[in-house]
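Before going further, learn to read the protein records used in this course. The integers have meaning only within a learned vocabulary of local backbone shapes. The record below shows the convention in full.
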Amino acid sequence: MPDVTAFQLFGYIAAALALQILLAGAIAVLRRRPKIRQLLTDTASQKTPQGAWVGWRDFRVVARTYEDPAETQCSFTLAPVDGAPLPPFIPGQFLTVRLAMDGQGEPARVVRCYSISDTPDPGRYRITVKRAIAPPGKPDLPAGVASSWLHDHAQVGTILQFRAPSGQFVFSPDANASPVFIAGGIGITPILSMLKAALADQPGRAAHLYYGVRGGQDHAFKAVLSELAQTHPGLDLHVFYAEPATGDVQGRDYDHAGFISLDMLKQTLPHGRHAFYICGPDQMTKALIPALLAWGVQEGDIHREAFGPQSAALKPPAVTASGPVLTVGFRRSGRTLEWAGQDANLLDFAERQSIPVDSGCRSGSCGTCETRLISGRVRYETKPDHDIAPGHCLVCVGIPETALELDA
């Protein structure tokens, strides 16, 4: 064996140390990626994240940050009061909050759902809430009760009650399809969580984000998205301003004037199969989804979430439907009423009769309105996302099929 000089020996030792450091880094990345992949894979089996709690849990607001120049979108960082680790959520899921607000001499209880807008953290969750105002041309509609209360009253130190993360609009990686995220307005909140998960799971893979807002004052997470695009060369970011203001500069603040359209997707997306994740106002999803299907995108490659509570508030009055009149009993309220098809669902029916029922998403996803079905049958126009417990029903999307008695 030839003699080894001290200099050569030092070189061998340095190389070995460098190799050990590289291996340690690779192992750390690989250890983290299976956790992300396992979390995302849970979607396929619709598993509840391990460690999810039952009922309501107290959280303290530990930070609040406005995400847009107009200060209409506020993020609330939440830490569990009990200090126990939080279960990992699947990116795209939401939290259900119960607010006790002072009403006419007595507390008013309001339940709402808000998307988690960050990646899983065992010590924190973050939701982002847009202050809901009366829509343009409809000043008679009230402003958002819950969102206004959170913006005005939920400060650092405020205690709020939440259910465990829920929802089926979640990111599921597909090796054969590049993800395309499409967000309108506050729809960026679950999309941002999904996008970060996609980039963490496969940092070098192509991903596309199309984000539409009215103008620069409504542009949320601007610095965050810009940093993601700079640090991930595979991320193709397109920002749309529907009504650019005088100070909004194309090429600096936004990429395209107008709305997200199929024509723009055709021009900017590379050839190949894509999986679309869409969250935004009803008018956006109703325009894009049929266009994507007509373009040849498979239905299974289109994932969407509409704005449940907002959509419900703006839907037109129900039209009386033909069919038999059915009795619906509410045992705890001590009332029996007649269902004649004038309401879109049992929740609308109960609220019209001033019968209190907890609700959140109003779209069959969160399970807040799940009610024990004492007798009778309930049908659903479309299968709810929430897994309904035996002997229960979801009143927010349920319609009586027979006479009913509900434990409400």
